[in-house]
Structures are given as C-alpha cells and as structure tokens.
Amino acid sequence: MSRVGRVERVTKETSVLVEIDLDGTGKVDVSTGVGFYDHMLDQLGRHGLFDLTVKTEGDLHIDSHHTIEDSALALGAAFKQALGDKVGIYRFGNCTVPLDESLAQVTVDLSGRPYLVHTEPEKMAPMIGEYDTTMTRHIFESFVAQAQIALHVHVPYGRNAHHIVECQFKALARALRYASERDPRAAGILPSTKGAL
Ligand SMILES: [Mn+2]
After folding, report:
1. What span, in angstroms and rounded, lies between the C-alpha atoms of 88 and 156?
2. What is the pLDDT along the chain (197 residues), one digit of tens a residue?
3. Are 102 and 155 in contact (CB under 8 A)?
4. What is the whole-number distance in angstroms between the Cα of residue 64 and the centre of ligand 1?
5. Contact between residue 124 and residue 149 where contact means Cβ atoms under 8 Å apart
6. How far apart are the CA of 90 and the centre of ligand 1, in A?
7. Structural domains of the chain in order of their starting residue, each with its CATH number
8. Could you tell me the distance, in angstroms and rounded to a whole number, from the CA of residue 140 to the centre of ligand 1?
9. How many angstroms is it from 103 CA to the middle of ligand 1?
C-alpha cells in the first residue's frame, strides 16, 4: 500500500501544491520562490528519503512570510495524510545532526497531538537571502499543527545562521524518516496502548 499525500491549498495570499511519498528515494521537486527555503525543503526530502513536490506561488511582493508559512501548513497536512492509519510504524524518531560548528537535536512522536518545543541560539543573522530566520520556529509550528505530531528541536550551540537552520531541517528529516518507517516486528500493530494515534 502506497503512503502518499497530496494537498492543494489556495488562498488570496498563496497557492500551494504539496505531494509526498513517504516510501520514496529522496526525489525532490521544490519551488517556492524563496531560495533558501527551497534548499531546506530539499534537505527534508533528501534526508527523509521522501519523494517531495512543493510548488508555491505566493505574495512575495509583500514578503516571504505567507509563502513560507502556507507551504509548511500544506506540507504538514500532506504528511499526515500520507501516514494514514499509522499501523506498523515506529512512531518515535530522533536524530542529532552537526553542521560544522552547529548542532541540532530533533525528537518526534507521531502522536496525533500537536506540540512544539523549540530552542535555538538567540544571536543569529536575521536574514539568509530572502529567508527571515525567525520563520524557522514558525515553519515548525505550522507543520506540527497540521501533521499533528509532537516535535522537539534543540540547537544547543551554533554560530552561522545558514548552518543553524540547515542542521535543524536535516535532523528533522531523519527523525521523521525513522518515526514513519515500517517496523518489521510490528506489522499490523498500532504502536499505542490507547488503540488510537
Ligand atoms: Mn504567520
């Protein structure tokens, strides 16, 4: 059974199409109009081994906020859709990824409940190209709200803004991959004592 999600989200501010295949090979086709964000979504697909399409046309004449946020909302919704009934998956995943001087520690629980804990260095360059670095937390908030997962992201140290953000996306990709992969010992089993996820 294929685990795919497809979400089209159209508002007066943005038009977003997201397609994701959880059992892909990391084939990514992303264009949001925000170069650094494309680079981050590329990390997510590549290191998550998800096939991922994100096509966003947003109101970039204002700024990149709606474009970035709405893409993350649609991505979260598509991820949830692709997870389906969550039977036979690992459910939990974590990964620690360094990028030179920066380190990201990410833990996820595909719990069915949205919760975000996020810490990163306060002192960071405010912009990476057209990407406002305060958007990283906003992306995770948006993704978590729609995917309905618990996500904990910590960057205990780091100096370069590009590195600080990129290691978070790489670690998130791996953590999501481990959590969503099928556990061969748990075929047909829902990983919850409650009987629902
Ligand atoms: Mn917003």
Report:
1. 33
2. 899 999 999 999 999 999 999 999 999 999 999 999 999 999 999 999 999 999 999 999 999 999 999 999 999 999 999 999 999 999 999 999 999 999 999 999 999 999 999 999 999 999 999 999 999 999 999 999 999 999 999 999 999 999 999 999 999 999 999 999 999 999 999 999 999 89
3. yes
4. 10
5. no
6. 32
7. 4-186 (3.30.230.40)
8. 11
9. 26
